[in-house]
């Protein structure tokens, strides 16, 4: 079997740019629940595969004849929204409700447009009525989604200001009509009628692009959440799917009210080791088709030496252990390893060994640490400076040792960025442990009957392996291996 080192790569960092995604897609249980429309709100960390799920769903649905509408990332512009709209304080209006109405309006109008663009040119019945409605009300108006949204919000804002200034029945009624989309009401039956023949799905991804945690950004997302769940509850042949980064979701309290009502339609993307082995295994066979007949594990063992010199570790365990179980991470680490080998003197392929993996690990570790810090920049600004305080330490520590270190940070004895100091001031050491656990930096010694999604049997578990944990009862911690190389952390003496 000839393996060409020059072309040996394991995929792209983002699903949007991954031409092999459909050929290599891992059909997880999550995907199946989406396809069956049991779940429509997808939460996942950065790089966990939100866009991949949507891209695959779009492909499958198109093949079935479904009308697929994808709202593109360029179209969200939080900055623009904040510039053109008054703030809640200035306008004395409730933005969540306004955005929810604006989203519903945008979604219905966009669906109508797509529906009448299908089929033959001569429309009859319901299609003809939708066509006439759009022609009379929306011809020549904004076609880009954010523009439509802004103009809807502007109309609301204007009416609201007028109502507050001088309340008349007519103005109040007009405002109510706009909020409740009364104008659209007579056409909903027509939309349903046309949808009987063609199902419609709307996919809204990448809401975090340009995210600035502003009032508008929060209301924009919570409004969408509300609009999507309410449309999904009323429409049978139309589904709105929304993906959101988990930590954004956790930071939008306005979502909780809705979330409580719709808990059963929320799906968290979670991976385990077998899923990630399949993900890489499929990509290996894409490059080396002779391996299609062998198991995913054996495909791995053709590319990586099965056992590494380092503590006789299994190579897959070593690599997957240096991730937070996100596809983008394992793809990136594997790519970094093959890149390093390509750039070295090696001419012909032989299975990657520990030395080569370790060569790539430092750069990978650095970029992951910086990525994680940037991922949490709104929640925990300056996080990187806190992670850096562990540089050169031993990666395994008793609870007391960890607490000592954190107290020194909190007292200012170990310097951190001013940004981080800002939020740390109101924290104690236990809360700081919680933060480091949440971002995946700490792993906890498994005590008692803790169960985790882990095969390789380490005693230390991270947040990606176990969902709930009583941190107060953990006697010992490890810094997650992904961060150790960059921080130059030492092995414990024993
Ligand atoms: N189920 C899957 N099968 C195959 N490849 C996948 C799967 N899920 C994710 N991937 C791959 O993992 C990488 C990261 O996935 P993706 O871009 O979808 O992450 P994301 O959650 O959208 O990240 P971000 O928050 O940055 O937008 C991509 O290369 C994608 O092709
Ligand atoms: Mg994405």
Could you give the topology of this structure?
Blueprint: H1 21-24, H2 29-35, E1 41-44, H3 50-63, E2 67-71, H4 78-84, H5 88-91, H6 95-116, H7 125-138, H8 145-165, H9 169-179, H10 185-195, E3 200-204, H11 215-234, E4 238-245, H12 246-250, H13 253-261, E5 266-268, H14 273-287, H15 296-303, H16 315-321, H17 327-343, H18 354-375, H19 383-388, E6 396-398, H20 399-410, H21 418-424, H22 429-438, E7 442-445, E8 460-461, E9 476-479, H23 481-487
Parallel strand pairs: 1-4, 1-5, 2-3, 3-4
Antiparallel strand pairs: 6-9, 7-8, 7-9
The structure holds adenosine-5'-triphosphate (ATP) and magnesium ion.
Adenosine-5'-triphosphate is lined by residues 11-15, 18, 21, 24-26, 28, 44, 46-52, 206, 245, 279, 327-328, 331.
Overview of the structural elements:
53% of the residues lie in helices and 8% in strands. By secondary structure, the chain is of the alpha/beta class. A 5-stranded parallel sheet has the order 2-3-4-1-5, with helices on both faces. It has a 4-stranded antiparallel sheet with strand order 6-9-7-8. Helix 11 links the parallel strand 3 and strand 4 (238-245). It is globular. 37% of the residues are buried. The model has no long low-confidence stretch (mean pLDDT 89). The protein binds adenosine-5'-triphosphate and magnesium ion. Magnesium ion binds next to helix 3.
What percentage of the residues does DSSP assign to strands (E)? 5-15%
The major beta sheet can be summarized as:
5 strands, parallel
Q: How would you sum up the global shape?
A: globular
Low-confidence stretches: none
User: Helix fraction?
Assistant: 40-55%
The secondary structure category is alpha/beta
């Amino acid at each position: 079997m000839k393996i060409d080192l020059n072309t040996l790569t394991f995929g792209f960092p983002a699903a949007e740019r991954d031409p092999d995604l459909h050929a290599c897609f891992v059909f997880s249980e999550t995907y199946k629940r989406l396809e069956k429309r049991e779940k429509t709100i997808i939460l996942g960390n950065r790089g966990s595969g939100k866009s991949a799920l949507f891209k695959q769903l779009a492909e499958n649905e198109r093949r079935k004849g479904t009308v697929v509408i994808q709202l593109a990332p360029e179209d969200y512009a939080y900055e623009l929204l904040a510039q053109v709209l008054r703030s809640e304080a200035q306008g004395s209006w409730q933005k969540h409700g306004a955005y929810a109405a604006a989203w519903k309006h945008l979604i219905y109008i966009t669906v109508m447009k797509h529906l009448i663009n299908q089929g033959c040119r001569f429309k009859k019945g319901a299609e003809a009525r939708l066509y006439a409605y759009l022609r009379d009300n929306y011809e020549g108006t904004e076609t880009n989604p954010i523009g439509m949204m802004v103009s809807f919000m502007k109309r609301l804002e204007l009416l609201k200001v007028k109502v507050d200034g001088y309340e008349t029945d007519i103005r109040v009624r007009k405002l109510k009509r706009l909020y409740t989309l009364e104008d659209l009401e007579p056409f909903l039956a027509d939309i349903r009628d046309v949808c009987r023949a063609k199902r419609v799905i709307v996919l809204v991804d990448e809401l975090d692009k340009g995210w600035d945690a502003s009032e508008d950004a929060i209301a924009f997302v919570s409004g969408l959440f509300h609009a999507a769940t309410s449309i999904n509850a009323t429409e049978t042949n139309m589904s709105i799917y929304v993906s959101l980064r988990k930590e954004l979701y956790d930071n939008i309290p306005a979502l909780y009210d809705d979330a409580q009502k719709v808990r059963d339609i929320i799906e968290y993307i979670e991976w385990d080791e077998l899923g990630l082995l399949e993900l890489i295994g499929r990509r290996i066979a894409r490059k080396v088709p002779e391996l299609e007949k062998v198991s995913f594990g054996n495909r791995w063992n053709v590319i990586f030496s099965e056992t590494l010199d380092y503590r006789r570790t299994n190579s897959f365990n070593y690599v997957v252990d240096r991730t937070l179980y996100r596809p983008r991470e394992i793809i990136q680490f594997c790519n970094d390893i093959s890149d390093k080998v390509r750039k070295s003197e090696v001419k012909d392929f032989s299975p990657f060994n520990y030395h080569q993996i370790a060569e790539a690990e430092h750069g990978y570790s650095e970029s992951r640490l910086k990525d994680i810090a940037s991922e949490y920049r709104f929640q925990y600004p300056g996080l990187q400076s806190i992670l850096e305080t562990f540089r050169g330490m031993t990666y395994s520590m008793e609870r007391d040792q960890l607490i000592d270190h954190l107290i020194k940070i909190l007292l200012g004895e170990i310097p951190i960025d001013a940004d981080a100091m800002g939020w740390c001031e109101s924290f104690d050491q236990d809360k700081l442990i919680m933060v480091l656990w949440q971002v995946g930096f700490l792993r906890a010694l498994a005590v008692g009957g803790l169960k985790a999604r882990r095969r390789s049997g380490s005693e230390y578990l991270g947040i990606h392996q176990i969902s709930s944990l009583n941190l107060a009862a953990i006697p010992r911690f490890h810094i997650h291996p992904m961060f150790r190389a960059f921080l130059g952390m030492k092995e414990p003496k024993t």
